[in-house]
């Protein structure tokens, strides 16, 4: 494992923990898109079905279980535990506009036309756009809490670091995965506007990501 993958995984984990702690400590999921969290839960579920068929390493298995568990815990907190604080009116992005095209693309463009491989490809494509409901929600409200911006920052950092991971693996391991690289580039691009505002305006930023 190279340093870019390790730090990418840790950034991803930090983003998830930040979000869970925010919801639990404030007893509120205000400003959080439940639809994005459902999509991420779907991403991890379809990607890590190989937990039932193969074992790679203790680290690999542990991280997969943590991602799946935290994803569903987040969905539970938003839609059940703190449902009264959920802003469904602003969280109005149509998930089917992402899931259906991504599902079709996964069936058409994949490494191998098998059940698990198609689901893995579906998860890669879906992860690249799963944050869109959250960004759309922020664009409608015009602002985001500081803790939410930290969550988005670490999530975007995770994807950016994974791009360097793919570059490292290509040069030092001869490994190249066009599907993962292109999807990662798409996801990173979606965060570019946010990264700019985060760095230039700091913690108290008012995000108008899709208004500009």
Automatic annotation (TrEMBL):
Keywords: Cytoplasmic vesicle, Endoplasmic reticulum, ER-Golgi transport, Membrane, Protein transport, Receptor, Transmembrane, Transmembrane helix, Transport. Belongs to the ERD2 family. It is a multi-pass membrane protein. It comes from Oncorhynchus tshawytscha. It comes from the Eukaryota. Its main location: membrane. This is ER lumen protein-retaining receptor. Signal peptide: none annotated. GO terms for biological process: protein retention in ER lumen; protein transport; vesicle-mediated transport. One of its GO terms (cellular component) is Golgi membrane.
């Amino acid at each position: 494992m190279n340093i870019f993958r390790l730090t990418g995984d840790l950034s991803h984990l930090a983003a998830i923990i930040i979000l869970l702690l925010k919801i639990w400590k404030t007893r509120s999921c205000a400003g959080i898109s439940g639809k994005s969290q459902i999509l991420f839960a779907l991403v991890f579920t379809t990607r890590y079905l190989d937990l039932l068929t193969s074992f790679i390493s203790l680290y690999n298995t542990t991280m997969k279980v943590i991602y799946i568990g935290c994803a569903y815990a987040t969905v539970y907190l938003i839609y059940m535990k703190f449902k009264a604080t959920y802003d469904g009116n602003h969280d109005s992005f149509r998930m089917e506009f992402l899931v259906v095209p991504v599902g079709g693309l996964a069936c058409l463009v994949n490494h191998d036309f098998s059940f698990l491989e198609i689901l893995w490809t579906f998860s890669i494509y879906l992860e690249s756009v799963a944050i869109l409901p959250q960004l759309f929600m922020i664009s409608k409200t015009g602002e985001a809490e500081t803790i939410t911006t930290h969550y988005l920052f670490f999530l975007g950092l995770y994807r950016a670091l994974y791009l360097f991971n793919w570059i490292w693996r290509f040069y030092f391991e001869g490994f190249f995965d066009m599907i993962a690289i292109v999807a990662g580039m798409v996801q990173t691009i979606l965060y570019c506007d946010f990264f700019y505002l985060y760095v230039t305006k700091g913690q108290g930023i008012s995000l108008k990501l899709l208004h500009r």
